[in-house]
Specification:
This protein has two helices and nine strands, in the order H-E-E-E-E-E-E-E-H-E-E. By secondary structure, the chain is α+β, with helices and mostly antiparallel strands. It has one domain: Immunoglobulin-like (Sandwich).
Length: 154
């Protein structure tokens, strides 16, 4: 009798620990490790996202393909975003040319901010014939620098 109760107890234990029936969502192979900075194109190709340093940056190139205006969204749950201006952001292309940002037109919002970021200079000359452009942010969150890239030419 004793031998029969051991397999039964084992079966009860295994079925009790079998896990939940709630669906799970596997991570995609392209998901960065926690805390890593990443630049990933969205389905449209005009939106790039960088996560890391306690801040998520979502940049949408609203002026594509002839203007250098971007809609910038910052989200966090741990730092105050109101102190950021983003005027030290830089836009650069594959030829090594750069454009400086104008002051960021975003209302204060604490942990969530959104607004237009535009760049000084001749956008049509800067973009003409460029293969890619990069939007570079310095000191947003705990990352010293983050880059978002758009491939625009052959």
């Amino acid at each position: 009798m004793r031998h029969r109760s051991i397999p039964f107890a084992f079966l009860v234990l295994v079925s009790a620990c079998g896990g939940s029936t709630a669906p799970t969502v596997p991570l995609a192979a392209s998901d960065p490790p926690a805390g890593a900075s990443a630049s990933m194109p969205a389905a449209s190709g005009l939106t790039q996202t960088s996560e890391g340093g306690q801040v998520t940056v979502v940049a949408t190139w609203v002026g594509a393909p002839a203007d250098t205006t971007f809609d910038i969204q910052l989200d966090t749950h741990s730092v105050d975003l109101d102190v950021l201006d983003l005027a030290d952001a830089t836009l650069r292309n594959d030829r090594g040319e750069t454009l400086a940002a104008q002051p960021w037109a975003a209302p204060k919002g604490g942990h969530h901010r959104e607004g237009a970021l535009t760049f000084d200079g001749d956008a049509s000359r800067f973009l003409a014939g460029a293969r890619w452009i990069e939007l570079v942010f310095v000191g947003v969150g705990d990352l010293p620098e983050r880059m978002l890239r758009w491939e625009i030419g052959p």
